[in-house]
Amino acid sequence: MTDAAISIQGLGKTYKGGKRALDGVSFDVPRGQIFGLLGPNGAGKSTLINILAGLVNKTEGRATIWGFDIDEHPRNAKVSIGIVNQEILFDPFFTPVETLEIQAGLYGVPKGQRRSLDLLRAVHLEDKANAYARTLSGGMKRRLMVAKAMVHSPPVLVLDEPTAGVDIELRQQLWAYVRELNAAGVTVVLTTHYLEEAEELCDRIAIINHGRLIANEPTRELVGRAQEKIVAVTVDRDVAAPPANACFQKIALVGDRTLEITYDKSRVNAGEVLGAITAEGLGIVDVSTKEPDLEDVFLSLTRSVA
Ligand SMILES: Nc1ncnc2c1ncn2[C@@H]1O[C@H](COP(=O)(O)OP(=O)(O)OP(=O)(O)O)[C@@H](O)[C@H]1O
């Protein structure tokens, strides 16, 4: 028995035809977190989620959901998780409220315990409760998919690329709802290509590339791992050409008096960089630094193991 919301050990998948989609992937999703699963297209994220959903058979390894092994206790594992897939799947001739009632029926939720209207309210679809689902916009359908995944009140919710094709306003609404669910105790796993969102939303991030896990850390530590740092230095006189120095990785003149310097923070510190400027006889008037964002980290990690 594990305390993790999801625990994956040595998970592997080789598709018929020989494609190795997952290779020895192990990680835990701690309970109560918003956990980001990132990776480039084709990295294996959907395969992993489909294994958890019981839609794809793994070839090796183990996975537990809320302590239930997906092979030994598949029913308990299944009711512990709600999954929102990339594809929008529901019958267009049912209304949202009917869609949720049918789904609750499939999960054996007794009528008295169903909360279809509450769920529709939470995803801002209460005024569409009785409209035909096929008349909903793309964003509304996606929100209905989230509500559908929550009918059996699972402790873990997985969202596979939930905001692909959703406009910014709806995306914000969806994230607000994800945060509310998480605040109410639901562990959330999401895959996304929007790195800045993962950075903003997720407590912890795992990165998969070519079927292998290449990072699994608290978001803040992951961001801190970017080694490149940029400092913009404004000096007290016009500079004709940027000075060269071994501690600069790159230097560019971005105005008559502003130099943008990229340095490797594992090798030199900001003091040495500024010292190299003053050693050129230039006075420093202003300094600003740019923190690396997740995009930088992601690119440097995926590049280094490609
Ligand atoms: N049913 C299948 N049969 C054979 N190969 C498959 C199958 N499904 C996926 N693959 C391959 O396995 C690899 C991983 O695919 P997967 O869909 O898991 O990646 P992903 O990270 O979810 O990508 P995306 O973000 O594009 O959805 C890819 O090379 C894909 O082509």
Describe what this molecule looks like in 3D.
This protein is α/β, with parallel strands linked by helices. The protein folds into two domains: 213 residues, 3-Layer(aba) Sandwich (Rossmann fold), CATH 3.40.50.300; 81 residues, Alpha-L RNA-binding motif (Alpha-Beta Plaits), CATH 3.30.70.1560. 31% of the residues lie in helices and 28% in strands. The chain contains ten helices and 14 strands. The protein has a six-stranded mixed beta sheet with strand order 6-7-8-3-9-10, sandwiched between helices. It has a four-stranded antiparallel beta sheet with strand order 2-1-4-5. A hairpin with a 2-residue loop joins strand 9 and strand 10. Helix 3 runs parallel beside helix 5. The chain is elongated and about 80 Å long. Bound molecules: adenosine-5'-triphosphate (ATP). Adenosine-5'-triphosphate binds next to helix 1.
List the helices and strands and how they pair.
Blueprint: E1 6-14, E2 20-29, E3 34-38, H1 45-52, E4 60-65, E5 68-69, H2 74-79, E6 81-84, H3 96-106, H4 116-122, H5 138-149, E7 156-160, H6 168-183, E8 187-191, H7 195-201, E9 204-209, E10 212-218, H8 219-224, E11 228-235, E12 250-253, E13 258-264, H9 270-278, E14 284-290, H10 294-305
Parallel strand pairs: 3-8, 3-9, 6-7, 7-8
Antiparallel strand pairs: 1-2, 1-4, 4-5, 9-10, 11-13, 11-14, 12-13
Helix pairs in contact: 3-5
Protein name: ABC-2 type transport system ATP-binding protein
Domain ABC transporter: 6-235
Organism: Sphingomonas jinjuensis
List the keywords:
single chain; 306 residues; alpha/beta; Rossmann fold; Alpha-Beta Plaits; 2 domains; 6-stranded mixed sheet; 4-stranded antiparallel sheet; 10 helices; 14 strands; 28% strand; binds adenosine-5'-triphosphate
